Amino acid sequence: MSQQNFLVDGLHCQSCVRIVTGALTALPSVSAVEVDLGADGPSTVRVDAVADLSVDEIQAALREEGDYTVVS
């Protein structure tokens, strides 16, 4: 099991948190997602998965969900 943190820009409210959480938990290797909503900047997204995920994999999962950008 691997836990990774990603900074994601574009989350503004709890609705955004639900959308991002749903998109990432839909990935087959992901078992859990937790989001700390950033007040004035990127939000921290913690992902528990069977194996490490790349920034590109996270960005691809979020691409269809809205204007969310992985910044690191």
TrEMBL record:
Outline the extent of the HMA domain. Answer: 2-70
Keyword annotations from UniProtKB, A to Z: Metal-binding
What InterPro entries would the database entry show? Heavy-metal-associated_CS, HMA_dom, HMA_dom_sf
Q: Can you tell which superkingdom this protein's organism belongs to?
A: Bacteria
Q: Does the keyword Metal-binding apply?
A: yes
Q: State the name under which the record lists this protein.
A: Heavy metal-associated domain-containing protein
